[in-house]
Backbone:
């Protein structure tokens, strides 16, 4: 699912719900930079985490 992520999209980290919602800042290959409400900027390896896209109905 990470391959559809674009800057501005809102996501959740399934393994770290305490981080809150995050906004995708960039995605370069498998490196995804997300700014989370409760954890700040995190650079994630998309090969090891499948971020959950947040929609209006999530």
Residues:
């Amino acid at each position: 699912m990470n391959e559809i992520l674009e800057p501005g999209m809102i996501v959740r980290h399934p393994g770290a719900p305490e981080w809150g919602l995050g906004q995708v800042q960039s995605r370069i290959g498998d490196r995804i930079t997300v700014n989370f409400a409760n954890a700040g900027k995190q650079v994630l390896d998309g090969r090891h985490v499948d971020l959950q896209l947040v929609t209006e109905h999530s």
Observations:
- The mean pLDDT is 94.
- Residues 2-53 form one domain.
- DSSP finds no helices and five strands in the chain.
